Task: structure prediction
Amino acid sequence: MVGPNRLPSLPDDWLDRECIIPFSFEGKGYQGFAGDTIASALAANGVWVLSRSFKYHRPRGVLTMAGEDTNALVQLDGEPNVPADRRLIEPGLRIQGQNCIGSLKRDWASLLGYFGRFLPPGFYYKAFFKPRGAFAFWEPIIRRMAGLGQIDLHAPHDYHDKAYGFSDVAVVGGGPAGMAAALEAAKAGAEVILIEDGRQLGGSLNFGRYGTDRAAAVNLRHELVATVEASPNITVFTDAVCQALFADNWLPVIQGNRLHKIRTTSVIIATGALEQHIIFRNNDLPGIMMGSAAQRLIHLYGVRPGKRAVIATTNSSGYGVCLDLIENGVEVVAIIDLRDDPPDCPLSSTARAKNIRVISGHTIVEAKARMGNRHVSSIAIARGQGPHQETDPVQRLDCDLVCMCGGYVPAAGLLRHAGADIAYDEETAAFVVTPLIDPIHAAGAVNGVSGLEALTADGRHAGWQAARDGGFEVDARPARPTTDPAGTRPVLLPVTPHPKGKDFVDYDEDLQACDIVNTVADGYTNVELLKRYSTVGMGPSQGRHSALPTVRLAAGALGCSLDDIGLTTARPPVGPITFAQLAGRQFEPVRRTAMHHRHLEKGATMMLAGPWLRPAFYGPEADKETCIREETIAVRNNVGIIDVSTLGGLEVRGSDAAEFMNRIYTFSYTKQLDGRGRYVLMTDETGAIVDDGIAARFHERHFYVTATTGAVDAVYRNMLWHNAQWQLDVDITNVTAAYCGINIAGPNARAVLSPLCEDVDLSVEAFPYMAATEGMVAGIPARILRVGFVGELGYELHAPANCGEALWDALLEAGRDHDIRPFGVEAQRVLRLEKGHIIIGQDTDGLTHPFEAGMGWAIGKKKKDFLGKRAIEIRKKRGTTRQLVGFTLTDGKELPPAEGHIVVRGPDIVGHVTSAASSHTLGKVVGLAYVAPDQQEPGTRLTIKAEGGRIIDAEVVALPFYDPENKRQEL
Amino acid sequence: MADTESSPTPESFLKRSPLYRALRSRGARFMETEGGAVADSFGNGDESENLAVREMAICDLSPLPRHGFKGKGALEWLRKQGVAIGNEDNRAYTQPGGSLVARLAPTEALILGNLSSENALSAQLEGDWSIDTAPDCYAVPRNSANFWFLITGLHAPNMFAKLCGIDLRLHKFPVNAIAQTSVARSVAIIIRADLGAVPAFHLLGDSASALYMLDCLEDAMGEFGGKPVGISAVRRAMKS
Result:
């Protein structure tokens, strides 16, 4: 025996009694068996207090033993809010109670219970705000008093992932109805996934009592499980929680650290029903639990839930609980049957035959506890169901266990995600889930069915429907159950607040019956408002047990029916879910150029450019400024090489290629000669600049167009969309990844490159600025473009990416005698800024049109049309409101402003800086900024307001800053 | 494991797989093929790699030839070159010489070279095509645009289920079926082409993301004991 409350071994319990596991709770050591949950192992050891409640810090213990409530949430190392009634014990597991200030045993915050009348729903909306600033005082106190467990911000990362799953039929719920449904669907040939949130298939068959002898349930379970396991087309997920039912039958199922994303043709929801608690004063004391929780403790974990029990019931299931208790050595003091005239049924007859005292027409008024509310010690009962007064005559019954059998509510969260609703049918005294739309079906208790035969018959019927929906050939429609065994229907009885309160409707939020009534009295009569004001149903158990009594209390207060009140919206997820489970394994594609490893070998500091990794500069971060300066010097004075593989590459081919280019870009391309490159500027329908690049024409029907790294995918989509509209004879292919790109630039670029070109004459006469050709470079086929982004003699080589590393090596080898130097993105940005070249997205924003960016020269003025033409004309006619200009700082010692720093004139913001850098070549700070139109003339003084209010004086200068006659790039 | 003296180094060729360093760090030995170096084996013995091919393995075929053609005249031009292409999109057609032609659309096809011998068809198509001689047919540089992996083994569908939303279970995704989809959030083409009785899937994607994809695949394969194998193991599986 491990623990004084441990029962002898049962044939179908979930324990391995050969394996003893030590663990600790609140610093004290205990032992349990393998297979024990934290709650069952503690209960076996006589520990019933698991946590403290949210608001009044009342001791709380086992309520459902099914992971459906807040009472059993505990703190593990690095993990808060662990359901103690589901999580298995492990060797060395350290567990702490939650929500206590002091210790779980002595929580001084429990004194708040005495001030409950001053803490009604919404009290925090009305308090703490006056005098002004008071909330700053109260906030940390409130935060400390409220809340659940503690998050460990230093907890190690854990591996979580996701996997797709597919089936013809998915059955959620592995109880009798679910298993019968799966088998029926599988019989027709459907592939079935059977999802069970418990550790084993069986559902209520694992612990429930459907007849005078539990053997009926046990035998049926064995039979169904064996048949399921022998069915090759049924895949069983256990310990798996289906969290939602989304459109098109998309089921997210959490199993351990994996999120299964299941797509299925048909869905059967067989999630059973949730046993409900009974409202009376102190109904939250440890030792007061659902009848099914007591059955779970006995049959799954071999734990005796108490010694002297009282059972309060509204239906026949309480008698089954009674039989289970007495068969396992628990004295049953009485069954309190809340019904005035309970019908006979086999269970009640058997219980009466065992001389169990049955007190009908009574209800529990109050429970009392030993010192400190740590365990129930007695109850008081009174006749009738009406409002009770303190003066009502009561009977007192001593007990240490109270089992509440308050009927069942369909666990219909998933069905409600699919648009179904729950209605209470007064005539049959049953909840009905309606409407259901094929291919979603309900089976079993969630469908309002009870009794073994009825459950399996309903399951078979749903399985048949699901198989039929999936197009499988099915036999004759199975019969549906028509009647339930007598007395199994839950009976709704009035819920009446106790005059002294602590009659909890919602355990999560410590909401008493009077809180709901008072909320309605405050005017929150709509159930959604009632929920938000009172916070009922907003805790971890999400209204599983509080929704029904809340609706009944509200209906009673308003004098209307339950249907008039309705239920709040059911939203995913059904159960708790961690961010890690939602995140799964991260998939963030990272693109590397063919020369990536060469950059690393050279000591580059890499940076992200969209999804690409690019060298920012070659050297350590600590030497950043030096590296950038030396790299710019190398390009200006000698020769440098940069990896530009991330540039977008687009092939535009076809007999209408030139016409297409003419329409999609602002410039004119119909007369562009083969073997020539031309600048491209793309605007959208509003005339805003979206991209730029170079178009090289290699054939009458072929343009090779470059695009910016970040925009190429959007440009490609834009081209495809417009090509579909225009119906031109053009084919567009995105070849970005197919080509590596290398720019070799500097006065010695030609000297380095020429020896590698076998069939291309790079002389200035044969290959002038903006020439383009195809040829062999170092034995590699390449497209060669003579461009000048950095303002020096330069060539851009585009070669097959799988040859990129070899081409890079060849260029570095050829340039060795010239001290060629690789340069990174940072140096390139400085070089292009010196040349006054803009970067789309940095020097432009989503509204910039060509004229305000000084790009009017890139507009084909004689063209009939192009994308954005009309908008540009309109905006030009209206006049610009800002102008991009070059500037320098008047104080040579001033640090450069940063991108985004504002340009001010008096109290007005007239623009902002888009680029700025300290230029070694020019010996001064240069930059680009938007200014007011009347400030664009060179010589205009500007005021830039930088970080911390620093004022920088600047002056507008003509662009470009460097080599205004463009002689160097045309060498 | 370093290359042996008889094993060529990938750096000795102009064309290189984006993964040659990653494969070498996993023990790859290389052999020359089609102007590049392909991983031949990983030095763990033939039986080990044979078993991996049957259970769960990845083979980098990126150094092998592959070509694409698109445009409204692409399929017609290919047929004129003797390529057998049926009328069904998203289906691969095996050629007499062993090459695989994947019809991606009515206007696009992808040609994968034969895994076991010289690729005459690839060479022929590459040589014959020009923008002047192939009306409305445009070459797509698949050789350099795409990595090319072969994913093999019984566990392959379950492994893919962790990365891809397409149902690739063997009885749902038949031999020669094609999925143009997303794998680990990266655009990819999947073609089922079994090696005899061994399930196998060609996987082609963005060559710049090859290392990222290898990382994702190896991570997903770990659960099934998957590992990289050389082309020799694949060829043995084709013959068995």
The first strand of chain A starts at residue 16 and ends at 25. Residues 606 and 615 of chain A are 4 Å apart (CA to CA). Chain A touches chain B at residues 161-166, 261, 263, 585, 587-594, 597, 611-612, 645, 651, 653-654, 699, 701-702, 729, 731, 733, 735-739, 779-780, 800-803, 805-806 (CB under 8 Å).
